[in-house]
Design brief:
mainly beta, Bacterial Pleckstrin homology domain-containing protein, PHb_sf, 1 helix, PHb, PH-domain like, globular
């Protein structure tokens, strides 16, 4: 599992191709909302959960997938980008994991992601 204590900030850029890494893990009715990539690692947001991908080893063939279901979200915070500061942040507190923070660069679907989290965590 990804060590979110030591790697709490992911600097992510939108990368639709990264979603291919998790397609085999999706369940029936699960759809990808957006995908982001840092250097090698990435995060895929679906309509049911967040899937964090930790690419390991020299060749990158070994991967760790961490599933973070929206139903386990206690609190979340969204900081949108501004006129000159194009970065945005999503901070989520999971009931069994604690705090996870994602930092995004550039344009993204953060509002849609926040709506999906609210839909599942407030139900």
């Amino acid at each position: 599992m990804i060590d979110f204590d030591n790697k709490s900030v992911f600097k992510l850029k939108q990368n639709a191709d990264y979603a291919e890494k998790v397609t085999a893990l999706l369940i029936e009715g699960e759809e990808i909302i957006d995908a982001f990539k840092s250097m090698r690692d990435g995060v895929v947001f679906t309509n049911k959960r967040i899937i964090a991908v930790n690419v390991q080893g020299l060749t990158g063939s070994k991967k760790d997938f961490t599933s973070l279901p929206y139903k386990n979200v206690d609190v979340f915070s969204v900081e949108t980008s501004g006129t000159f500061d194009l970065d945005s942040e999503l901070e989520i507190y999971f009931s069994s994991l604690g705090r996870v923070r994602f930092e995004f660069s550039g344009k993204n679907a953060l509002t849609e992601i926040a709506q999906m989290i609210a839909k599942h965590s407030l139900a």
